[in-house]
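Worked Example 4.2. Read the sequence first, then its structure tokens.
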Amino acid sequence: MLAHVRRAPDTPEPAVHTAALGRSSAGAVAAQATYALSSFVLQFAAARLLGLDGLGRYGALYAFLVLTTAVSGGFVGDSLTVLDRQDRSIRAGLQISLIFIAAATSLTLGAVTWSIGFVSAATAASYAVATAAFTVEDALRRNLMAVFSFWRVVIVDVVGLVASVAVLVLMAAAADRVTLTHLMLALFAGQMCALAVAAGLLPVEERVLASFKGADLRSVARFGTWRALQQVVRPTLLAGVRILCLLTSSVAAVGALEAARVYTAPAMLVVGGINSYLFASYARTKSAPLGGVLHRADRTVATLVAITAAVGIAAVAALPILGPVLSGGDYDLSIVAVASWSLFVASIAAVTPFGQLASVRGNQRRVLSIRVADSVVTLIAVVIALALGLAVMWVPLILAIGSIAGGMTIRIMVLAPAAGHANE
């Protein structure tokens, strides 16, 4: 068992569940909507202002930004949700981990993207500082979620969005054209404003900075390492797939695939945000019987899949109208890519709650091994498909199939047996 694991509240589990479905759940939905909007705006700006080549580069940079956030979110964000962050040694361990991850990843990404000639020095520098700010802001955002202050998260997201848009508009007015550097600086400005607001909105007891002396890095690493590894599996897979597509196709083709992803991004971000809420909920009801929680997870998955499927169908149907809004009429969005990405979103909705529930119940290693296995198989399938001449627009469909396979394996081989043993 992990040391310093946060106790579940003494309130009976059904009451906790009822409360979670009340004001907090409404706030969670609102928070995911604002998060989706704030992330979508800059992606929309990239699609409209940078062209397919610029959008392809932005998509690659953003993929590694998401990967960085996944590392921090798993190692720090999930640890502060599950472990006892009021313990000074745990809090110090979380602080050190966040500082190290933010500094190491931002400097590495900036240096690598510049040294290989993928972006200019100015873009690399702005990308590095934006990555650091994004990482720290995400940790504070996760802290607010951990205490179920979802409506405060909404405020944080709105402030960040307004600041990013304001800075981008000012730079666009002062420059001849908007560049990738401008977008990264706008992202940095928005994240810094959101970070400051998030720090101010945290409850007083959550704003304590612990001395680094006596930091319990071992407890944080014991839980956070497995969660971080699990969290980076999908972003790593997506980053690897982007690289494969760039190697086998043109940057413009990858840009077209990215444009279709941006088109479906709001649904993807909302699903991801709802899953963040579910993780906090599963952590709070950790002592509840697994069988009952698993049944509710099944119903949650069914609901999410139905919603994302309906949204996907609507997205495809509305493509002739909304597609030109995104592209500005400069290029057409692929209906195959949009449909494939929509299926991928539905697969995320179908499988992530099972992985989260299994991890909260102490099965991080088994979840990780299953996720790595399905990702490796999926990556091999993508390599074979591209080598056989399959168009890159079909790649998200392969990702969706692999995701579903991994999630159902967790449900059948990890959660179901554990629930059965608990009932014996």
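Now turn to a second chain, presented in exactly the same format:
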Amino acid sequence: MATITLKNIPKQLHQMMKQRAVRHHRSMNSEVIACLNQAVGSAQVDPESLIARARALRRKLSVRLSEKDLSALKGEGRP
């Protein structure tokens, strides 16, 4: 495994990372690795699985929107 040395970390950021590590019951090193993993998108998304989840959620909804409803909602709050 590779090693990275971080320099000149702002004090406030260092404190926030410490607090975050405590909240997640991790070491600082493990917390930094978790944050980097999240930031670079290491978790692969399976498009088919995502579509299946969206369809399952849609089936649970009791509301059906028409094209007219969707157009109105899209324009809501726009000048």
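Notes for the reader: The radius of gyration is 21 Å. Residues 9-79 form one domain.
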